[in-house]
Amino acid sequence: NAGVMQNPRHLVRRRGQEARLRCSPMKGHSHVYWYRQLPEEGLKFMVYLQKENIIDESGMPKERFSAEFPKEGPSILRIQQVVRGDSAAYFCASSPVGLNTGELFFGEGSRLTVL
Amino acid sequence: EDQVTQSPEALRLQEGESSSLNCSYTVSGLRGLFWYRQDPGKGPEFLFTLYSAGEEKEKERLKATLTKKESFLHITAPKPEDSATYLCAVQRYNFNKFYFGSGTKLNVKP
Question: How many other CB atoms are found less than 10 A from the CB of residue A74?
């Protein structure tokens, strides 16, 4: 009964490179949320997706960041031309339906370090 | 704008020393308030959901309460294994995201 799976757990990139973070939601969950956490700070909402649809991307930076959740396969958060300020922990969470039913289930996070 | 403020930022307790963590919120149309526990290097783990003022939830040494402006997480006779960062989050009706506070880092000394 696997939980939310994220990979890689740790990723190191040089400035200007691309980072791809993957998230497989819990079995039976079709809603995925991405959050970013800076050291000693709370979680900041980035984007909410259902299968093949972006529902709310109001927390996503307008440039360099994109997210998808294809019909088959994991959700992917893509960061192009990374800068040092992108260094953070990126958490994925899933829920079985929309958030009207309760809590989010979080993965262990992907920690991005930009050199 | 919705705001969630947690206090204190850090709390050091001796084992067995009870205390409370605070989560103050400003949100239009609160649908739910959520408490999570986060261990270092891990993802947040769900603890409680509170939906209306006056509601209380308990789990082992933890009890969460809710008023119209704030929530408290009471820790009774804590143990070292309760050491973690406790996060509070709020959700508005018809919105698909949680607003998280910055957390309270709890350290329980044996």
Answer: 17
Of B32, B46, B100, the CB nearest to A105: B46
B31, B43, B100 ranked by CB distance to A42: nearest: B100
From residue A85, how far is each of A49, A57, A76, B87 by CA, in Å?
Answer: 24, 19, 20, 23
Shortest CA gap A45–chain B (Å)? 7
Record: contact B97-A48, CB cut-off 8 A: yes
Which residues in chain A show pLDDT less than 70?
Answer: 1, 97-102
Contacts of A55 in chain B (CB under 8 A): 96
Task: Using DSSP, state whether A101 is helix, strand or coil.
Answer: helix
pLDDT of residue A100: 56
Tell me what pLDDT residue A17 has.
98
Identify which of B95, B68, B106, B103 has the alpha carbon closest to the alpha carbon of residue B1.
B95
User: Tell me: the pLDDT tens digits for B2-37?
Assistant: 789 999 999 999 999 999 999 999 988 888 999 999
Tell me the mean pLDDT in the region B32-49: 93
Give the contacts of B75 (CB within 8 A, at least 6 positions apart): B13, B18, B19, B20, B21, B61, B62, B82, B106
Q: Residues B62-72: what's their mean pLDDT?
A: 96
Cis before B110 (ω within 30): no
